[in-house]
Design a protein that fits this description.
- The chain is an alpha/beta fold.
- It has a domain at 72-306: Rossmann fold (3-Layer(aba) Sandwich), CATH 3.40.50.
- The chain is 26% helix and 28% strand.
- It has nine helices and 16 strands.
- The chain has helices at 9-13, 15-18, 24-30, 96-112, 126-137, 175-193, 256-269, 300-305, 366-381, and strands at 2-3, 59-70, 75-81, 84-90, 118-122, 141-146, 203-212, 233-237, 245-254, 273-278, 292-295, 310-320, 328-334, 338-345, 348-352, 356-357.
- Strands 2, 7, 8, 9, 12, 13, 14, 15 and 16 form a nine-stranded mixed sheet that branches. A seven-stranded mixed sheet has the order 1-10-6-5-11-4-3, with helices on one face.
- Helix 5 links the parallel strand 5 and strand 6 (141-146).
- The structure holds flavin-adenine dinucleotide.
- Flavin-adenine dinucleotide is lined by residues 65, 67-68, 90, 92-98, 123-128, 146-148, 153-155, 157-161, 277-279, 296-300, 304, 315, 317.
Length: 383
């Protein structure tokens, strides 16, 4: 076990916080007033798309992340490890940011059931932070242990569009896990809506389309059930870029750098502690002072707990200079450019289109950048 002594509220809030002089109300008073008037201009769902300006000279950065994809779906269960009670909350694939508040509520309910006031949360991505905050709000004294904190987590690489997808292999997921995912999605979306259009959290409304030249699959509901998605239309003929069919709905865009920074701040100003530490295996947990632990280590949980069902699903994203006139996202497959998706982040237009299962390579690939930039430019030319 590698361990470095304490990273704590002082890092984010300055010396005043360390000496206990900063009250919660002081910190909130220092923030700019949230703009809740709806600064995201969201057009009617069928309004024409303005073209994205996709060219190499507008690319600002390219990043890679490994989605924690677990073949049977996310693991949410309480187990005994030595003398510790461990609640597992990991393996959320391509939907961990979306699901976060829902699975956090569920994991926190299990953890609170042990009745101990002090709880350790392992991991500081979207799942760990939301779980820690839910526990704090329930009155627990929470310490987060992790080897990396925002902005250095996979959660910071996420798109992140609110729609839990790429969550399981269809032939391995149980009906119980499906029920859990539907319920968690409903809780999570209702929590995210409370942050919408508050610039301190980087969460805002967009319209999202998926397109295909074959009829869209309507045999199953969307995760969380269809009524969760405002404005949803499915398998409509025609649509943007000349495709034969499309689905469309309104959803939330979550800018993970802004959002996770805000969650860290919320956790620290409520008295939470953060400790940098790297666990090698289950035995390392025995040294922790808390006897109730919640495991939110994403892909890292595989190594520590010997879970071979979790694998990386590599994703590469490039960002273009921002465009104020783009309020839509999309996902589709093309004959010449393969899978492509785009989200309208305010800090830049996100270009994506890779889900490579079993690939651990974190190095950006130049040929992927070219494929995405040219593919999205070709789509824009079809408008
Ligand atoms: C390209 C890409 C696009 C995505 N798009 C979306 C999207 O649009 N919407 C969406 O909802 N999701 C999206 N995702 C998925 C999302 O990023 C993940 O599901 C989510 O980040 C998982 O969160 P987490 O907190 O479990 O994991 P992480 O963010 O990886 O956090 C894990 C934490 O555990 C710690 N840890 C790991 N191992 C150890 C160890 N051995 N010892 C100590 N600490 C450890 C880490 O340091 C970290 O703090 C995307 C992912 C990628 C890569």
């Amino acid at each position: 076990m590698r361990r470095r002594d304490f990273l704590t509220s002082g890092a984010a809030l300055g010396a005043g916080a360390l000496s206990g002089c900063v009250s919660v109300s002081d910190v909130y008073a220092s923030n700019t007033a949230p703009d809740l008037t709806g600064d995201a201009l969201v057009q009617p769902i069928g309004a024409p798309f303005k073209p994205i300006k996709s060219s190499m000279d507008r690319v600002t950065r390219t990043i890679v992340g490994l989605r924690p994809f677990r073949k049977p779906g996310p693991r949410l269960e309480a187990v005994k490890v030595g003398d510790k009670d461990v609640v597992h909350n990991y393996g959320h694939g391509g939907g961990g940011v979306s699901l976060s508040w829902g699975v956090a509520e569920m994991a926190a309910t299990l953890a609170k059931g042990y009745g101990r006031p002090k709880i350790g949360v392992l991991g500081s991505g979207a799942i760990g932070l939301s779980t820690a905050i839910v526990l704090q709000r329930a009155g627990a004294d929470v310490t987060i242990y992790a080897q990396a904190f925002p902005p250095y987590t996979t959660s910071n690489v996420a798109g992140a569009m609110w729609h839990p997808v790429t969550l399981y292999e269809k032939d391995q997921v149980t009906p119980e896990t499906m029920t859990m995912l539907h319920n968690a999605s409903r809780i999570a979306f209702s929590r995210f809506i409370r942050y919408a259009n508050d610039p301190n959290y980087g969460v805002y409304w967009i319209r999202q389309h998926s397109m295909s030249n074959k009829e869209m699959n309507v045999s199953e509901p969307y995760i969380g059930y269809d009524d969760l998605y405002p404005g949803l239309v499915r398998n409509q003929p025609g649509g943007p870029f000349g495709f034969a069919y499309h689905d469309a709905y309104y959803t939330l865009m979550i800018d993970p750098d802004i959002y996770l920074r805000a969650l860290v701040k919320d956790f620290l100003i409520s008295g939470g502690r953060m400790m940098e530490i790297s666990f090698e295996d289950e035995a390392d947990l025995m040294a922790l002072p808390q006897n109730t632990l919640v495991n939110c280590m994403g892909l890292g949980a595989g190594k520590v707990f010997g879970d071979e069902t979790i694998i990386p699903a590599r994703g590469q994203l490039s960002f273009l200079l921002p465009q104020n006139d783009i309020d839509y996202g999309y996902a589709l497959g093309t004959k010449d450019y393969g899978l492509l998706y785009s989200f309208p982040r305010k800090t830049g237009i996100l270009l994506g289109g890779s889900v490579d299962k079993g690939d651990w390579d974190l190095t950006p690939r130049a040929d992927e950048v070219t494929r995405m930039v040219e593919g999205h430019a070709w789509l824009a030319s079809q408008l």
